[in-house]
Amino acid sequence: MNKLKDYDLPSVRLSAGMYALTKLSAAGLTFMLVSLVMLAFPHTEGVPEGWPTSVPYAIYAYGLPAALVSDALLRVFHFDSLTPALVLYAACGYGAGVWLAAEQGGDAVTCGIAGIFALLLFWLAQLAGERQPLLLPVFALFVPLICLVLF
Question: How is 113-142 classified by DSSP, letter by letter?
């Protein structure tokens, strides 16, 4: 049996779990912020008028996979600076909005622009979660449930 040296190796499962918790927390914070903004618009049965689907469905079904693709592309192409990350997140946000419009109906340009803003907000929420790791479980688990009950 091979012995591991006494290096300070991080656990792969711990790193993957923290990444998943950070993504879920960013989705929860984005869901909360977008839901608060959508309170200003009239809505019917949880779907704001003029939108093809509800806010949680848009965030978790379209925004979260787009954010995962963005992160994967950032890792593959080794982008370390801020500008390529913003451009990549904006492009994936537009793609998520067009994907939502194609599947749920709606104007592709409007949904694409909303997707850009949502994914950039998602990215900011992820950065905030990485800076305050104690809040990750709160925004990953409790805030989305409270928002679903209240909104």
Answer: HHHHHHHHHHHHHHHHHHH-GGGHHIIIII
pTM of the predicted model as reported, rounded to 2 decimal places: 0.85
The tokens for 61 are 């079904």
CA distances from 100 to 60, 105, 135, 137, 147 (A): 12, 7, 29, 28, 22
- State the SS3 of 39-82: CCCCEECCEECCCCCCHHHHHHHHHHHHHHHHHHHHHHHCCCCH
Q: Within 13 A of 39's CA, how many CA atoms are on the CB side?
A: 9
Instruction: Express as a percent the part of the chain with pLDDT over 90.
Output: 48
